[in-house]
């Protein structure tokens, strides 16, 4: 059978959105030749060789790997929050509702994504490094302040709000680096960059659990803060642009909002983020419900993040061959098939481990592929604005999804099972899969790419 490759890092056909001109997330060399409208960024000025390098050059892997390391700390906090969630829900605040406690982890990712619509403007105007260093300071302060908190509302403001805003300052420049340095290997580079989030969740989970057990939650937070300050502070120095940024006249791109492509991407992003985090937040509590220990819960998160690290890189590599929208559609639909039967029927730890392996390998591909899709189908001059707008809706999806899941667990599952919570999560991921199929059909119908690949 033949499958249309809706887009690929190797071949991009001309469309009415000038896809061929988009060779990087912040602009191709061709689109930047009119240098009288371009200002030099501080990140280029600090580069000892500040000439514009070609796409796919070896130097691009230096800032890409720096992003990967920083993503360990940006997303490590949210991907390993299940350890804190299990501890808060069962030990420190057992009489506090799950929906209330879910505000902490929810706000981390919601604000990290949602605020990029503003922090992205700062990154373009003042440079990647300055923006990233603001994030480093805020995230460090959030950890330190949280370590002295005694009430849930205090943790919501520090570990949730302050860290989420700080993470947004780090994330805004990070999301743009890999796509702008690569064209042919854009999917692979984006997969490598975002794999840091899973690798961070992997060692963050083990380290956090060990520190809580041996030093207590307060010192666990302080040590994470110190590590964040030191490591991201060093990695920020390696945030180089490939080309200067064009000044943005507006935060929102209303022209892009008139395109169906934009709304299909936004709908898919909103829906998948609404349902995705249920496994991360509640798999540890599920382990406890069937007779496991706190360590069983953290081990499940370790397996989940390990699978995710492999899956994100593999998804980017495969996407360069057969198209990122094709991989996105397949992974979202398979996630539903995996999540519902394995989680809903689990009576022992074995199916939970199988769930975490498969869910980690397959489900998070959207995190690495969505930025590639946006970079492929939107013009360089509007790309940063479009990325910020889609991230805003993703953040809203996280907020709506995580709070709803906590309320469902409290009211309908009565904190004794997760049947209704699982159904809620899976149905939104299914909806995201259908939206991605609609996006694929829309792109093919518009003739953005007519290359076909033989699938055996």
UniProtKB/TrEMBL annotation:
Gene3D superfamilies: MFS general substrate transporter like domains. Keywords: Membrane, Transmembrane, Transmembrane helix. Its main location: membrane. It is found in: Membrane. GO terms for molecular function: transmembrane transporter activity. The chain crosses the membrane at residues 58-81, 101-123, 130-146, 152-175, 187-207, 219-239, 260-279, 299-318, 325-346, 352-378, 390-409, 421-441. It comes from Coemansia guatemalensis. GO terms for cellular component: membrane. It comes from the Eukaryota. Residues 29-42 have a biased composition (Basic and acidic residues). Belongs to the major facilitator superfamily. Monocarboxylate porter (TC 2.A.1.13) family. It is a multi-pass membrane protein. This is Major facilitator superfamily (MFS) profile domain-containing protein. It holds the Pfam family MFS_1.
């Amino acid at each position: 059978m033949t499958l249309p490759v809706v887009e690929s890092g190797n071949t991009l056909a001309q469309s009415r959105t000038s896809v061929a001109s988009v060779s990087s997330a912040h602009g191709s060399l061709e689109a930047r030749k009119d240098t009288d409208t371009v200002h030099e960024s501080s990140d280029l000025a600090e580069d000892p060789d500040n000439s514009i390098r070609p796409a796919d050059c070896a130097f691009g892997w230096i800032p890409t790997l720096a992003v990967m390391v920083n993503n360990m700390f940006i997303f490590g906090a949210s991907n390993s929050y299940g350890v804190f969630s299990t501890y808060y829900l069962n030990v420190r605040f057992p009489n506090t509702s799950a929906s209330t406690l879910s505000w902490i982890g929810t706000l981390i990712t919601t604000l990290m994504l949602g605020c990029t619509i503003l922090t992205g403007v700062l990154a373009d105007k003042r440079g990647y490094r300055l923006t990233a260093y603001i994030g480093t300071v805020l995230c460090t302060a959030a950890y330190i302040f949280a370590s002295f908190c005694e009430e849930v509302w205090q943790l919501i403001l520090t570990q949730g709000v302050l860290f989420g805003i700080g993470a947004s300052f780090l994330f805004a420049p990070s999301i743009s680096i890999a796509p702008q340095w690569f064209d042919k290997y854009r999917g692979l580079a984006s997969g490598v960059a975002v794999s840091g989030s899973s690798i961070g969740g992997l060692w963050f989970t083990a380290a956090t659990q060990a520190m809580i057990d041996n030093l207590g939650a307060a010192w666990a937070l302080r040590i994470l803060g110190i590590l964040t300050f030191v490591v991201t502070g060093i990695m920020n120095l390696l945030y180089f642009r490939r080309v200067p940024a064009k000044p943005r006249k507006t935060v929102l791109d209303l022209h892009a909002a008139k395109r169906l492509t934009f709304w299909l991407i936004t709908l898919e992003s909103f829906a998948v983020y609404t349902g995705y985090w249920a496994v991360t937040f509640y798999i540890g509590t599920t382990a406890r419900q069937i007779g496991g220990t706190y360590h069983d819960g953290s081990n499940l998160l370790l397996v989940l993040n390990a699978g995710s690290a492999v899956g994100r890189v593999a998804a980017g590599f495969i996407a360069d061959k057969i198209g990122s929208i094709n991989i996105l559609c397949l992974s979202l639909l398979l996630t539903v098939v995996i999540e519902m039967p394995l989680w809903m029927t689990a009576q022992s730890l074995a199916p939970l481990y199988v769930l975490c392996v498969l869910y980690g390998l397959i489900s998070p591909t959207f995190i690495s592929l969505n930025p590639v899709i946006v970079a492929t189908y939107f013009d360089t001059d509007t790309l940063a604005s479009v990325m910020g707008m889609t991230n805003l809706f993703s953040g809203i999806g996280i907020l709506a999804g995580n709070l709803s899941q906590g309320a469902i667990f409290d009211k309908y599952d009565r904190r004794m099972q997760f049947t209704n919570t699982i159904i809620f999560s899976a149905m939104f991921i299914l909806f995201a899969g259908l939206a991605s199929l609609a996006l694929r059909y829309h792109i093919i119908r518009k003739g953005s790419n007519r290359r076909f690949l033989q699938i055996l």
